[in-house]
Write a structure and sequence with these properties.
Two copies of one chain form a homodimer. The first copy, chain A, has 351 residues and is of the alpha/beta class. Chain A folds into two domains: 184 residues, Isopropylmalate Dehydrogenase (3-Layer(aba) Sandwich); 130 residues, Isopropylmalate Dehydrogenase. The first copy, chain A, has twelve helices and 14 strands. The complex binds 3-isopropylmalic acid (2 copies). Chains A, B: Keywords: Amino-acid biosynthesis, Branched-chain amino acid biosynthesis, Cytoplasm, Leucine biosynthesis, Magnesium, Manganese, Metal-binding, NAD, Oxidoreductase.
Chain lengths: 351, 351
């Protein structure tokens, strides 16, 4: 098994180092090779996705990513910015299925800004389409109109097969969970998402056991706050998924705990924390590595089909939490504040 | 002063009746004329925005709208559905500036699913662009691709003047509030919103006293949950505004309390509650009319420039709440549960 390790920017390198430590402690037959991406790619090779990095990622079975982005690259031309490396690797590897769990850890319940009874036991799986929609649709760009004014354009596009394949991922996951899929669209206004809804309804015929519901995106944004436990699996397009998955993750109050997986048709995947690169705290050994470590668990589950080791990692994280270890972002009075590196050690010890 | 009264569907007629009662009690020199819109427009004239209704609205100084939509119209062709009437009247009247306050009433603080300390004193004004963006951009539709598959398309478009005029509304409102504007975009991915950000920055030079910040829409969806009180005025495009304004309104826990205004360049406006038509409770005299009554206050403030009467209405609503009157949606143990009509009477009495 070959893993491409792409630490990226900001806190990326330090959190990835902890995840690598955990992977090594599992003593599996894997090889890991590191390469730069994002701002680090730009520094190393003048490109947020250097050719050698893309080649490595293409040849690997799975990619472990830290995070990309740093304000210091904000002034670069658009195609050189760190985010573009991330968007391109998703597209090049055809990682169309982005899985973002929003899970509340009982030990961390008080970190949520929502009342405990509203979020206790929260366990939502958001399935976001990742290689289509307005993120990639042509035409796009900023141009001059006849009257001399600038106009900005982006295009939301979805075709049937794109919708069907992400729908399938959602239904398949729901079959292993509570058998409920909520498809989120804006079918009352946007034709692209009207097609989305039609295809989801067609597809649902193949999954008679799964209960399919539909929700407009504005209502979904409300319901996540009003009664988030009504959801099991949510499936939606790229831009709505971007917004709703971040909203859902914040319900838990500890985004430093949430992993993500981005899969292609063959379960090759890229695994990364749901949070960003947090350049303000980079290099200080205070970042929370647990989301990245839990991304390794997702890698074991989805790409390597190794449920046993996936659960071993997840249980080790739970044990470290139960033992009172906390990084600064999830620390509360009475628990044991540790750094990024020490948290990695605590998880390894708990394995 | 001429007001076009468009009750619409579902609970629309009963909540509008209460707002009309309040308007009459103010004893101003106004004339009101009623006309159907939405499903009611379709029933009356085969069109969710009948020509006569549009004419009336165009000739009026302000429009008071209830709500549109009912599941029973879901099977109609797209252009006949109630929502289309709403979208068309916004466009026809050039109501580009949608103001949606998210305000927490101290008496109703416990209705929020967020912890009291997170939302107490919440007072955000969301300024949403309402006649552009992917809601109206061409090309749009569902068509067949060469391989026989269907594809859905919508187009996000913004030009400089559209951005500048909504920006101005936001800055002007901020000048009367806490002088902070947060502009929400997805400039790291979407060029249309990269232009949005540039124009907001250019415009801010004219408002040296206002502090302008920028936030990506995914982060804004998180920050509204993490620390909503950081916001004063938020300004954003049509689709992001649709999502974020609903999210923000739900922070208060009482969407039945939130009014909205949609203004053109001359402060002609359409005023309506932020909530929907709730067909499930229509005709039962249990709907909350306060959002519609508070929309009348916004009408007095923004279109009729009558701050004194606007505050009179707002104070009457507060007094009715302080006296313990509650409709079912905001009722808690110990308060006095009343119906829609009785709540209207309570506000009139408090005037
Ligand atoms: C960094 C950005 C391009 C990216 C996205 O919008 O997809 C991020 O927000 C995410 O959700 O992974
Ligand atoms: C009903 C619908 C077309 C409308 C919108 O999306 O603008 C509504 O959600 C709103 O926010 O007023």
């Amino acid at each position: 098994m070959k893993i491409a390790v792409l630490p990226g920017d900001g806190i990326g390198p330090e959190i990835v180092a902890q995840a690598v430590k955990v992977l090594k402690a599992l003593d599996l037959d894997i090889s890991m090779t590191e390469a730069p991406i994002g701002g680090a790619g730009y520094e190393a090779a003048g490109d947020p996705l250097p050719e050698a990095t893309l080649k490595l990622a293409k040849e690997a079975d799975a990619v472990l990513l830290g995070a990309v982005g740093d304000w210091k690259y904000d002034k670069l031309e658009r195609h050189l910015r760190p985010e573009r490396g991330l968007l391109r690797i998703r597209k090049e590897l055809n990682l169309f299925a982005n899985l973002r769990p929003a899970l509340l850890y009982p030990e961390l319940a008080s970190a949520s800004t929502l009342k405990p009874e509203v979020v206790s036991g929260l366990d939502i799986m958001i399935v976001r389409e990742l290689t289509g929609d307005i993120y990639f649709g042509q035409p796009r760009g900023i141009s001059k109109l006849e009257n001399g004014e600038r106009e900005g354009i982006n295009t939301m596009r979805y075709n049937e097969s794109e919708i069907r394949r992400i729908g399938r991922v959602a239904f398949d996951i729901a079959m292993k969970r509570n058998k409920k899929v909520c498809s989120v669209d804006k079918a009352n206004v946007l034709e692209a998402t009207e097609l989305w809804r039609q295809v989801m309804i067609e597809l649902s015929a193949e999954y008679p056991e799964v209960e399919l519901s539909h929700m407009y995106v504005d209502n979904a944004a409300m319901q996540l706050i009003r009664a988030p436990k009504q959801f099991d699996v949510m499936v939606t397009g790229n831009i709505f998924g971007d917004i709703l998955s971040d909203e859902a993750s914040m319900l838990t109050g500890s985004i430093g705990m949430l992993p993500s997986a981005s899969l292609d048709e063959n379960n090759k995947g890229m695994y990364e924390p749901s949070h960003g690169s947090a350049p303000d705290i980079a290099g200080k050994d205070i970042a929370n590595p647990l989301a990245t470590i839990l991304s390794v668990a997702m890698m074991l589950r989805y790409t390597f089909n190794d449920e046993a080791n996936a659960q071993r990692v997840e249980n080790a994280v739970k044990k470290a939490l139960a033992q009172g270890y906390r990084t600064a972002d999830i620390w509360t009075e009475g628990s044991n504040k540790v750094g990024c590196n020490a948290m990695g050690d605590a998880v390894v010890a708990a394995l």
